[in-house]
Structure formats: C-alpha cells, structure tokens
Write a structure and sequence with these properties.
Structural class: mainly alpha
Strand content: under 5%
Helix content: over 70%
Distance between the termini: 9 Å
Order of helices and strands: HHHHHHHHHHHHHHHHHH
Oligomer: single chain
Number of strands: 0
Number of helices: 18
Length: 514
Amino acid sequence: MSVFKAAFNISFFTLISRITGFIRDIIIAYKLGAGPVSDILFIALKIPNFFRRTFAEGAFSQSFVPTYAKIMVGQNFSEANKFANHIFFFFIIILTCLIIIFEVFMPNILMVFAPGFSDVPEKFQQTIDLCRVTFPYIIFISIVSLINGVLNSYKIFIPGSIMPIIYNFMLIISLYIFYDLTYNHAYSIAYGLLLTGVIQVISIYLIALRKNIKLLPKFDPSLKKESKKFLFILLPAILAASIIQLNSMADTIIATLIPNAVSYLYYSDRLIQLPLSLLGIALSTAMLPTMSQEIKKNNFREAQNIMNKAINIGLFFALPAMIGLFLLCEEIVFTLFTRGEFNEVTAYATANLIQIYSIAIPAFILIKILMTEFYARRNMKTPIKISFFILLLNISLNLILIKFYSFLGIAIATVISSWLNVLFLLILIIKKDYNSFKKFNFSILLKILLNSICLILLILIAKQYIADFIRFDFSKKIFYLTIIISSSGLIYLFLALLTKIFVLKDLVKTSNQA
C-alpha cells in the first residue's frame, strides 16, 4: 500500500469520525452551551487527552513504529512481536502508576491545569471529582495506540481510524444512558468515556487477532538491549511531544482565567481539527513507517520525494480549508451549534476564534508533515529544541495578548507561534541536508496559491447573496451553506484540473486503488 493510498484511507474514515464528532458536539452544545458546567467537562476531557496525545499517540507512536519497523526489516516478525509484548508489559506498569498518582494528587495537579477555577471552590471541587472519573481512560486509549502502532507497521491503517468513530458514538449514547443514573450531563459523558475505552480496546484487539497479531504484556529479559535503545528514543520523544502538546494545553490553562473561554476554545477547536485530522495526521501517520524503512535502506531520494509530495498535497487541501473557515465561520457556527443552551453570544465568540485559528491551519498541517522527517531519522533532539522555544514564545504571547484581546489573544498567539514553527523546521531540514527541496515542484505550489485566490473571490461574491444568513431558519441555513461549500469545492477542483495540478490526478489514481 502506497503512502498516499494509506493517507486516503485514513482520511476517509477520519472524515466519518469527524462527522460523528460534529453530531456529538452539536448535542453537547445543545445540552450544555458555554458556561461553568461545560468548562468543567472540557477540562476533565482535556487532561486525559493531553496525556494520550503526548504519550500514547505522540511520543510512543513516533518512537515505537520506527523501532518496530526496523526490527521487521528482513521479515523478522517473531522478534518484532516479542519486542511489542515486552514494551506492552512496561506500558501497563507505567500507566497504572501514572493513574494512581493523578487520582491521589488531582487537586494539586488541577492547580496547574485549571488555575482559574481555584477562585470558585465549588467549581474547583466539581472539576476534581470529574477528572478523577475521566483520567483512567488513558490506560485504555494507550493500549489502543500500542496495538494500532503494530498494525501501522504492517501498513494496516483503517482500524486506528475507526476508533474515534466508536468514541463519538459511545459518548452520544452515554449522554442518554447514564443521565438517568447521574442526572448530570457532564457525569454522563465522564462515565461513558470509561465504557468507551473498554469497547475500543476489545475492538482493536479482536481486529489484531484476525490479522494473526497476538499481543500480550510479557517481560522478556533477552530484549534488554532493544529496550534500552527504545528508551533512548522514547524519553526525548516524550519531552518533545509534551512540549508540543503543552502549546495546546497552555491555551486551555490560560483560558481558565477568562469566564466561558474554555468552552469557546473547545467548540472552535472542533472545526479547526477537521482539516488537521483529515490531512496532517493522516499524511504523517502514513508517511512515518514508509519513510523510516526508506531511510533504513539508505534510499534518501525516495524519502525526499515522499516529503515533497506530501507538502503539496497538504497545502492543496489546507489552503481552501483555511479560506472556507475564515470567510464562513459565522455561517458554520450558527448552522451547527446555535440552539438550546448555545446562544448567539457563544456563537459569535466561537466564530471569532475560528476565524483567527483558521490562519494557522496550513501551518498545523506542515508541522505534522515536517516533523515526520526528524522522527523517521530517529532525530528527537531537534524537535525538542524547536518545540520548547515555540512553547515559551506561545505562552509569552498569550500572557501579553489576552490583556488587549481577551480570549482572542490566545488564538493570535497560536497563529504567530505556529508559522514560526514551520519556518524553523524548514530551515533545519535544509541545514541538516535532510532535504534541499531542489526537487520540490514549486510550479504546483504557485498554481495552488492562484486557485486559492480565485476561491476567495468566489466565496466573497456568494456571501453577498446571504447577508441575512443568521436570521434564516435551520433548513434554509443548511441549504445555502451546503450550496456555497459544495459549489466552491467543485470549482476549486475544476481549477486544479484546468491548471494541471498533479495532486488531483494522483488522488483519483489512489482512490481507484483503495
């Protein structure tokens, strides 16, 4: 399976997961809106997800997949699985200890993650109680990430893409199932999260068994040398991933100082994450094992070709995503969320955040792609240095800008720091001679930029005919928004065909092979 066929398959299932995710968030917005209860819930969900992205999907995946793939070279599947079982053993021990520490010291930990809540004792205590329910989810999703990492090494990507779909459906169901027991929507979701974790583990484990991959935690003293090598890669990767995720977490921490800002950030993040998940994560997930194997074989030219192609594919979709969210932010928010407890004040606040965050969408996707270059070469030090500097910059900008722009300053800081991150990664990739980009197809990039300008003009013209969009009823909003988005997308694809952008041809070829 080629890198771009794999990315296509991942993106397809990610799209389904995002659609179900929107349904989940629409229901949450209807039930909770933006207020103290929603702020508490989103913090309770954010903390285990922070460690999931940092450790399970971040550092562990980026360290485990290249190491496992390296052992697999030469068809050494038995040794590779022994290594996976050995790591699984330590995985369970570390995560169990982490859960115990957090359950005991949750009040102290929340003084770091939600300092703004401590001024309201009742709100702070409710956050502690809810976080103690949600945090054990990390052990389930981490096991899922381990098994998925093994599947990815065999170029099996679809099961991992299905897991978020299970997550979304289970949280929707939990809102109704557990409400009769808790009479609290936040607790309904929290208990549902634990049930979701159990179902996800069982599902992906059964899929692995069907692929003749049997993973069980088992200590193997003969793998001492391999374990040391893995830890040598993992520890810097944890530091790098934690710094990267702290950038996002820092936004939430600072948002706790502003009433309702945590909820505004959550709802805006749902829309911003769509193109990032469909493109950035899909491409980087598919690229990592393939690039690792090509570099292991000293086939550096092919690794560079994969990188160059991924950048153009990423930008081909990232730029229209940025334009669409920037120009249609209010229309999208009012259509998707504005009902029930989600009022107009919340809608405008969320739309303003989306408009600013959208400027960083191409940067987010490029960061995912460019970081893969370092991870595939098992160079963890460089991403750590860059990420640490960007973290300090982001926090500093946050603290300065919220004084002038309130919660909007958080988004502005993220945009600035993200684009600087891209710049530093590009400079270091060239400086380290990983990729000179001499073979990069700049003519394709120019065509993408010109087509994107045409897209801007098209949407601006269309908006002239829906000046009273906010006053439309729901069915009318859906109709006009669907027409604008679909027609703009089709015209953009037509322009790509007209200007002979190779990306379109490759994607059609890939979809036929999928």
